Amino acid sequence: MKDLKQLLERLEYVCMQGTLDKTITDFVYDSRKVTKDSLFVCIEGTVVDGHTFAAEVAKKGAGVLIVSKDVIVPETVTVIKVADTRYAMAVLSAAYFDYPAEQIKVIGITGTKGKTTTTYMVKSILEGAGYKVGLIGTIETIIGDTVIPSANTTPESYLVQKYFREMADIGCDCCVMEVSSQGLMMHRTAGFMFEMGIFTNIEPDHIGPNEHASFEEYMACKSLLFRQCKVGILNADDSHCEDILKGHTCEVETFGFSENADIRAMDMQLIHKPGYLGVAYHVSGKMDFDVEIDVPGKFSVYNSLTAISICRHFQVNIDTMKKALKQAKTKGRIEMIKVSDDFTLMIDYAHNAMSLESLLSTLKAYNPGRLVCLFGCGGNRAKARRFEMGEVSGKMADLTIITSDNPRNEEPQAIIDDIKTGINKTDGKYVEIIDRKEAIRYAIVNGKRGDVIVLAGKGHEDYQEIKGVKYPMDERVLIAEILEEMQS
Length: 488
Description:
Elements: E1 2-3, H1 4-7, E2 14-17, E3 23-24, E4 27-28, E5 39-41, H2 54-60, E6 64-67, E7 78-81, H3 85-96, E8 105-110, H4 115-128, E9 133-136, E10 140-143, E11 146-149, H5 157-169, E12 174-178, H6 181-185, E13 194-199, H7 215-223, E14 229-235, H8 241-244, E15 251-256, E16 263-273, E17 276-285, E18 289-293, H9 298-311, H10 318-327, E19 335-337, E20 344-348, H11 353-364, E21 371-375, H12 383-396, E22 399-402, H13 412-423, E23 429-432, H14 436-445, E24 452-456, E25 463-466, E26 469-472, H15 475-487
Parallel strand pairs: 4-5, 5-6, 6-7, 8-12, 8-13, 9-12, 13-14, 14-15, 15-16, 20-24, 21-22, 21-24, 22-23
Antiparallel strand pairs: 1-3, 2-7, 9-10, 10-11, 16-17, 17-18, 19-20, 25-26
């Protein structure tokens, strides 16, 4: 039960009809969940406009409607008009849950790549230092012992505030969360102030009819975070860093390889041992120590530098940082699975040409005996992605194993044929094995000394979608089954 006037205290609005002297029993934005005396927010979506349900939810007993368009409902219903109902929902949600972000420190990480891995690194370090940390991200939301699988990188504002409330109630000191450009554009993170806002990098991505109209819009959305945080920590090496900072209202710190960065990486070394790839470097600038990460590549340096830049504000000691960074793992992000002393096997989420090229470039720098890339492509998605990924793997991998991903409503062989169109633009060698478990078995059985084998595309996913049904399929489980079958 909430007082309507209190919910509206930080929102600009006009009361179009009815009284503000009302008690709200529930807060909903799904017309199917409306109950008597609830508040309903009319969200204008890409497919459905909540305003069209105004009469229906009034009939169900909604006591208050939040609108941005005129609606016709009985006079007993209070109608509050705002400029943007998505923004209003964020502000109202914060009030509804009693402003939980004022009780915990919220760290928001935005960027094209690195968000997921960095959130887990930060969580690992801060928990090692004794803090209680919540997490909201692409893979899952973690609140104490509760793990909630994610539908979006950044959930709707109501859920964000609900999660903050639950974190505060169990004594979390802070929350580290991924902040997507879509989340910023759709005001999912409005209504509170971030303790820190982080920018990892930006590349042309998420540009299209259902995402961002242009790279400029994509970049402008990312920049919004730095008008909503106390401290901004940015990648000094990214060529768009200054653009991201346009209009910022926060204190600014930087990280990177640049000699001007506040936290700098120096003397980077790639580490390659049987069944293991990693990286070591020296941290200089505002901190001074050596660090080794059990994840390969230059981008791992950036991810860990980001985590270090954040955690130094929590007065975490250096030994705790080093230990936590060595142990931090992210499911499905260059996740190494030990199967042999002869070759290295890993799982990664790379599922478009840009991410696959970045991944294979990173692995080639270790001069593997062979670089083997196993992947498929999703059905009911742009065919161009299949051609592009096929061409990237054909150019960069010594052997490509083409298999199924989530075929959805398409025939797996048709998807594989599209991938082959891309590979055939190159001189790359390939085999095709539709069944993903059999494809993985082939990769393991035929692994040679010095090989680096990457299973790309599925990452953290634990299912395969076929004809509208999601069947259980976790690559970690498949690998364990294959190894057991090989032994017997």
